[in-house]
Write a structure and sequence with these properties.
This protein has 384 residues and is α/β, with parallel strands linked by helices. The protein is built from 13 helices and 15 strands. Bound molecules: pyridoxal-5'-phosphate.
């Protein structure tokens, strides 16, 4: 049996919440999506929350709402899931990357400062990614880009429940829009699902339109007055990115355990940290002092020369280790756009030694001990 690197935690309450929707009048566009949105807005201390099908569509709609199109440029980091970069490409925009701090896995403010002063083409939007659930240094990042009028979309797919400077990630104090994912390996799940938060009322309105075909039924918003009871207006070219009430019910039920999930993850992380303390050739990533991580991922660095054999040993021992992330700019699709190995050396060096150990709410004491024992065996066998 394999110990997965991440796994959802589903209780009877979650199942009951979903079953209730199935027996109700609305499977979609019922009362639960707005209720879930309000609950997320409350947790994040954001003015608005907009639920969508997944974080990938959330990122896409966020770019569209910020008027990203052909000829525009978006920056993100190489150490992320491809979706953080793909969203710009969906809009026909160009993408470029800012290198990371290899000790945290997050966007490096110094690299950003340098790129802002040396680049001959500046981005319209920057997408920092809160890697592993730990917020980037958003204050510094926002201060750096503000003079250039660059907008910020936070990719907080890993970070629901995390805090930065004591305040919840998603409050958009240092960004225009924040995006969350509710994929089953993330902190809470709706099966597939995503959410955008913002404090900008006009952006929220725009996102709601884009989520549902560009259509509004709000008579106040009509471009020409019309009181026919069946009338609706398509005002822009939108999509169907709506979340269902089935998913929102699961999300609401899961959200009740958000703090418990994070507490459990933190207990597992401190246990990893103490079990691994003093072991030569293993360095867990660090988290910046202002950041209180949601701990989506627990990543260690091992010597690059033995990463592969250590990884294979752990997999063979039934441990579902993983690697986050293959630098996006080295993917064939992005190479085709002109990027190459060597472009972002910190992300590449970080990647070469990275292994993600299993971390989820139902990881047991015994499993965790076994994982570390096997890691030590592998290190003794292979690390030079
Ligand atoms: C999971 C993830 C996404 C995409 O989320 P989906 O909900 O699966 O579309 C985007 N960015 C990052 C950093 C992610 O980890």
């Amino acid at each position: 049996m394999t110990i997965p690197y991440g796994r959802q935690d589903i209780t009877q309450d979650d199942i009951d919440a979903v079953s209730e929707v199935l027996a109700s009048d609305f499977l979609t566009q019922g009362p639960l999506v707005p209720r879930f949105e309000q609950a997320i807005a409350d947790v994040c201390k954001a003015h608005d929350a907009i639920a969508v099908t997944n974080a990938t569509s959330a990122l896409h709609l966020a770019c569209l709402a910020l008027d990203i199109g052909p000829g525009d440029l978006v920056w993100t980091v190489p150490n992320t899931f491809v979706a953080s970069a793909n969203c710009a490409r969906y809009c026909g925009a160009d993408i470029d990357f800012v290198d990371i701090d290899p000790t945290t896995g997050n966007l490096c403010p110094d690299a950003l400062r340098q790129k802002l002063t040396s680049a001959n083409h500046l981005p319209k939007v920057l997408i920092p990614v809160h890697f592993g659930g730990a917020s980037c240094d958003m204050q510094t990042i926002a201060d750096l880009v503000k003079p250039y009028g660059i907008r910020i979309i936070e990719d907080a797919s890993h970070a629901i429940g995390a805090r930065y400077q004591g305040e919840p990630v998603g409050n958009c104090l240092h960004s225009d829009i924040c995006v969350f994912s509710f994929h089953p390996v993330k902190i809470i799940t709706t099966g597939e699902g995503g959410m955008l938060t913002t404090n900008d009322v006009s952006l929220a309105e725009r996102l709601r339109l884009l989520r549902s075909h560009g259509i509004t039924r709000d008579t106040q918003q009509f471009s020409t007055p019309n009181d026919e009871p069946w009338y609706y207006e398509q005002q822009t070219l939108g999509f169907n990115c709506r979340m269902t009430d089935i998913q929102a019910a699961l999300g609401l039920s899961q959200l009740k355990r958000l703090q418990a999930f994070i507490t459990t993850r933190k207990i597992r992380v401190s246990r990893y940290q103490s079990l691994l303390a003093g072991i030569e050739n293993v360095k867990p990533l660090t988290v910046e002092p202002a950041s209180d991580s949601a701990w989506h991922l627990f990543v260690i660095q091992v010597p690059a020369t033995s990463r592969r054999v250590i990884f294979e040993h752990l997999r063979a021992a039934g441990i579902g280790v993983n690697v986050h992330y293959i630098p996006v700019h080295t993917q064939p699709y992005y190479r085709q756009l002109g990027f190459k190995t060597g472009d972002f050396p910190q992300s590449e060096a970080y990647y070469a030694g990275a292994i993600t150990l299993p971390l989820h709410p139902n990881l047991s004491d015994e499993q965790q001990l076994y994982i570390v024992e096997q890691l030590i065996v592998a290190l003794e066998q292979y690390a030079e």
